[in-house]
Amino acid sequence: MRAPRAAPSFDFSRIMIDRRAFMLGSAATAGCWRRRATGYPGYAFVANSRERSVAVVDLTRFSVTRQIQLEADPTAVVACSRRHTVYALTAQNASIYEIDTADLKVKRKLLLGGTAVSMRLAADETSLWVLCRSPHLLVRVALDDARFAAASRLKLPAEPADFDLSRDGLFAAASFPETRTAALIDLAKPAVINVAAAGDDPRAVLLRSDGKQMLVANRRARMITVLDVKTGGTLVRLPLPVEPENLCVKADGGQVFITGTGMDAVVVVYPYWTEVAETVLAGKAPGAMAISTKPEYLFAANPESGDVTVLEVETRGVLAAVKVGQEPCYITFTPDDQYALVVNHGSGDLAVIRLATITQNGSQRRSRTAPLFTMVPVGVGPVSAAVVGV
Asked: Which of 91, 128, 236, 308 would suit a FRET pair with 34, their CA atoms being 20 to 30 Å apart?
């Protein structure tokens, strides 16, 4: 009878060595991957709405280099690259702070009085427009004026909810929920030149890229009302599956993306064809959105689930979902489109996503997840961010 075959022997020390070599090799590979990712030469300015400060994040090191203290809670920040400045709005007292991006200090302050809703920078970056709730005003601040004062104050017909500027800088549109109207404003005069019926609960408003039509979001009615700018007449009302709370426009103006209560989706509207094109599932209760330039990706924040859904604009296919933090509420990009910066209101941090990882993931089509590059704690209740190169 044949003797039983001896069990194979294993050199456990060899296994441990091989495992250690594998782990070191993996770490080296990961290190090489990280080294290929370079920071952006500039700063992200993040408005902290609960601690009266603007956090300055060094995007070469991805760390906070300074907390700039204000006299009230900031609600928004915008960057003016031409002047190398950032403007912070404190809505509760309608004040604007001009922050110099070289010395990272408040250079000038303007108190408008009352309360404000929002602000927008003119396309030529020579003026800052501020929409005020009390009193009902649209205020222009001339940025090149050494006095840093209100250059004009236009009285509005009712309490405003939102406004938009035309791309040529000649006109503005504003919505008034209480009177169920929207207005076209000549910015050169300035003067209200047309007030039109805009349906129930008009909120967000957009001027089409050619300036010929106005899109008004009727939140409670779940509808978009399209108005003719010249006549003020209603051209069409587009029913939506969601309450239109957040609107995001493609760079060429050819597509408008809409999110809101009612469906876990992004609704796509063609403003030039005045039709609803498609509804795309995009995570859990998507909210704020932003579109990168190259590649053209739509990033949609999902506050309830703490992640961001990334869609390819051309195909509208979902490329990835990225876990970012608690209550993501605002998204912006570095000017070189290397990084997406996600403001997390609940966890008080800035999540950084490297777009190259989305591109690689999307091309392989193997996974619907993508890694987070890093996380930067910025303060309490951040709500907005702006990026400036140095």
From this structure: 308
